Amino acid sequence: MKAVLDRYRRIAAETAWVFAGQGASALATLAGLRLITEMVPPAVYGAVALALGAVALAHGVAVGPLMQAVLRFYPDAAQAGHEGQLRRAALVALRKPALLALTALAVSGAGWTVFQPQDAWLIAFAVALFVAEAARSVEITFLNAARRQREMAFLMTADAWLRPLAAVMLVWAFGASSAAVMAGYLAGCLLALTGFWSVAWGRGGSDKGPASGTLSPLAGDILSRLWTYALPLTALPVVGWVSGQADRYLVGSMAGVAAAGVYAALYGLASRPFLMFSASVELVARQPYYARASVGDRAGERQALGSWLGVVTAVSVALCLLFVLFHAQIAALLLASEYRAHSALMGWIAAGYMLLGVAQVLERVCYAHRDTLGVLSVEAAGAVLSVAVATPLIYFYGIEGAAAAVPLYFGAQLVMAAVRAYRVWRRAAQSGTVAARAATASVI
């Protein structure tokens, strides 16, 4: 009984820290956006946004897949006491993709400065920010994998607040330039990391296991497994960009830039609560689920997945109803008057993200059983459908068609994710049965 109470007490504490960190980070994002847009003109902020988009894409391709691999293999490493070796293997694996992404950013940035020489410092700070972002991701990933949610919440919150505050200070000191804003983001990220590392090193490091020296004899196997798991995921950032961003470019090309602006505002407002909630629940539920999958606890895995699905489904339905029933009031509170005429479209977008949230939970079955190729196939098919479905609807109906397309292609992605998850689950069950029979036969 005490063990059960301790387990639920830990889950409750982890949940509280995750949502506290997410809430503080969201508040920092909103406050920072308001402060910075008050201090710099749209052209300056637009240049910063474009540069940040390039950094995010490079980071997603170079760092994101390997961090997903770390999250999946951490329970196995923890059982064997090899957390430190996993960390070192991940850092070794990161070198090549990070260097390639860094080179691509630098080359593309140099090309940009040929036409916009005034942005040279913006590009330099953006390239440096990519390196800082990679280091931050490593720390966040290992903290979450180890279920050290309090430390993760502090690091995320410090980073979220220090970036805009440093940017505002530099803009105030050096003027409203894109380089000053980007330098502030870089300084804030570095300050948060420096503070975290100072505390972590003062306590003897952030992971158990050797902090220096050569890799263990198992390092080659660890690296091989990391790469095998991660390689199919390298295309996911591009695929995700197509699913979540391409429709507004289609709207801009077919219905005009003004329509694209209205659609982007409605889309961002309707999708953000779903994305934030799903991410928060994932930070809490993912590692316990992976831990059960690692030891072959089928009943525990089923229970963890069912709870995860139930929470995400229930809250997503409630959020969807909120947008469907009160879209006008939400738009009046959070959007300028010129964006409110099409507020009803947020109901369609919310319905799509309700379906996407459930689909992404089911995709975790594939992640848990190392079927990352299956994740890629589902996400890629969803991206192709998003363009195929949205294009004719936007052509004939404008932004109304774009919004109506969202639940259609995300609904199709949900069906594909459910089918793939069922196949992976059944295959894992069959493998477990075969292994159990073999063990029984060896005993006999």
Q: What brief labels describe this structure?
A:
single chain, 444 residues, globular
Give a description of the structure.
With 444 residues, the chain is mainly α. 87% of the residues lie in helices and 0% in strands. It is built from 14 helices and no strands. Helix 3 runs parallel beside helix 5 (120-145) and helix 12 (345-368) packs antiparallel against helix 13 (372-397). The longest helix is centred in the C-terminal third of the chain and has 45 residues, at 399-443. The chain is globular and about 55 Å long. Mean pLDDT is 82; it is low at 207-213 and 434-444.
H-E order: HHHHHHHHHHHHHH
Helix content, binned percent: over 70%
Query: By helix and strand content, what is the structural category?
Result: mainly alpha
Helix count, DSSP H or I runs of 4 or more residues: 14
Outline, from the CA principal axes?
globular
Largest sheet: none
Low-confidence stretches: 207-213, 434-444
Average of pLDDT: 82
Gyration radius, rounded:
23 Å
Number of strands: 0
Question: What kind of oligomer do you see?
Answer: single chain
* Fraction of residues in β-strands: under 5%
SSE map:
Blueprint: H1 2-39, H2 42-62, H3 64-80, H4 83-115, H5 120-145, H6 149-174, H7 178-202, H8 219-230, H9 236-255, H10 257-294, H11 298-334, H12 345-368, H13 372-397, H14 399-443
Helix pairs in contact: 1-6, 1-10, 2-4, 2-5, 2-7, 3-4, 3-5, 3-8, 3-10, 4-5, 4-8, 5-6, 5-7, 6-7, 9-10, 9-13, 10-11, 10-12, 11-12, 12-13, 12-14, 13-14
